[in-house]
Every structure is written in C-alpha cells, then in structure tokens.
Amino acid sequence: MADRKKRGGGGRGGNNRRFDKSHSKVAKKSDDIVEDSPLIRAFISYRDELNDNYDRYERLYKISRDITIESKRIIFQLHLVSTDASKEKILEEAKTRLDKLIKYNFADLAKELEGHSRYQYVRAYTSGVQEFVEAITFYHYLESGTICSWNDILSQMTYHVSSGRKDSVQNEESDTVKSDDMSDDKLSESENKEEMNQSVEPIGEERKVALFIPDWDFILGLEDLSGELMRHSIKCVSSGRIEETFKACDFIRNLYTSLLTLTQVHNREFFKKLNVMLQSLLKVENACHMIKLRGSEVSQDLLVHMIGTFNTNEDEECSYD
Fold this sequence. Notes:
single chain, mainly alpha, 3% strand, two-stranded antiparallel sheet
C-alpha cells in the first residue's frame, strides 16, 4: 500500500494527476483547431445568416407596429363622419394618410423583403397588413359604399427603387459609425475623407420591387371590417341617418354569406373572426328591428339607448362550428 502511494497509483493525489494529464491533452487538441477550417467557416456563415434573419424580423415587426398604430388612428378619424358637410374633409385627410402609409411604410416592407421568401417573415407584419386592410376598406365603404379588391391593393404595392440610393444610405450609416470612431482616435483624417468620397455614388438603374400581401390577410381584414361597420351603423342612428344603418346591415349580411361559401379553410383565425362577425351582424339586425318597431314612437336618443341596452343584455350566444 505504501509503495502504491509513493508511485502515485492510488489515493486522491494520483487521480488528480491523471485528470490533469487528460485535461491537458484536451486543451492541446482544442489549440490545434484552425479557425480557417471549412467547418468553422461554415458555422460562422450559419451564425451570420441567423443573426441577419433575426434582425430583419425585428425590423419588419417595428414597421408593422407603426402601420397598425397609424391604421387605427385613421379608423378613429373615419368614425368622426357624422354629416355630409364634414364627410368630404375627413375622407380627404384619411386618403392622404393612407397614401403616406403606402408610399413610405409599405415601401420599407418591400425593400426589407426583397430577395427573400414572401412567407418566411409573414408573421412579423401580418397584423399590420390586416389593420391596414380594415382601414382602407372602411374608407372605400364610406366614400362609395363598396370596398376595394385584393388586386386593387396589390397594384399600389409596386415601387421603383434605385440601387445607388440604397448603397448611399448604407454608406451614410457607415460614415456615422466611423465618425464616432474618430472621436476615439481610431481613424485618421485621411481615411475619413476617403470614405466620405466613396459614400457619394451616382444613382444606378431603377428596379421594381413589389410587395406581396397574402390573400388570407386580406380576408381577415375584411372580417375585422364588420366591427367598424357595426359601430358606424349604431352611430348613424343617433345622428338621424337611419338609411345608413339599413345599408350597413345589408352590406355586412352579404359579406358574411359570401365568406360562408369558402370551403377547405385551414386558418384558425378565420373561424374566430367569423364568429365575431356574426355577432356584429346580429347587433345591427337587432338595431334595424328596433327601428322598425319603435322608431316612430320614441325619440332618437331613447332609441339609441334602447338599442345599446338590448345588445348588451342579450343572452343568446351565437357560435360558428
């Protein structure tokens, strides 16, 4: 036993020495790994590609959030239409804001998605597209009593982009970064002048960039439109425009029956929003029914109160299976 301890073959000390030897061998093997090997370069390219995908997804999500916020504001503005005198001015302002969304925000979406799969990042901007469809269809309904089609929206999503402009933007960003580095004495003045001269490039040939809006986003946006039409029809009762209420009721009913004809639907949101659409239709139908029965007996304010109370206390639950 004493001889084994002297040789270091037993006890804790010997085990530690053997562990140190094996650990040193692993360390030597890790030092022998060449960073320029094909395997390392492949994983570095995978890392860069994943980081690029994550960054692009975040940029698309931010653009979609801005579109959602502005679309909600446009819808709120369209609900301010109470008389024919204010209708033209409000519609004109809403049209200007919708055109700005198409010209700037959706143009940024098209540039970010250029050269990539149309469905790869669809989850990042689907909410913004649906809200925009709801806003622009609500605008067309108030303007002409009809809604725009899916192809009409797609025709407005084609942009002309110049390669020179895109490069100049990238160079401007690089100039700002490098000018900050100069404050830390990392770049000389001569290098900064050369890079500033390189940032000024002539504008190249223009190319067309088309933004594809999925058809399901358009359909889901139409289903959301029913809620805005329901609020608009109830408001028309208080302002004395009874005909608008019946017109909205017929429009929602026709839209609902048209969506029922869709078969082999594999979208969960479609059925959820279709159920909400049915409830909105029933509220408008109840309002029209109340107008026919009690419209000539009570005042408009009391009639609006009766309609709101009837819709709130309604115990009947409707579902779509």
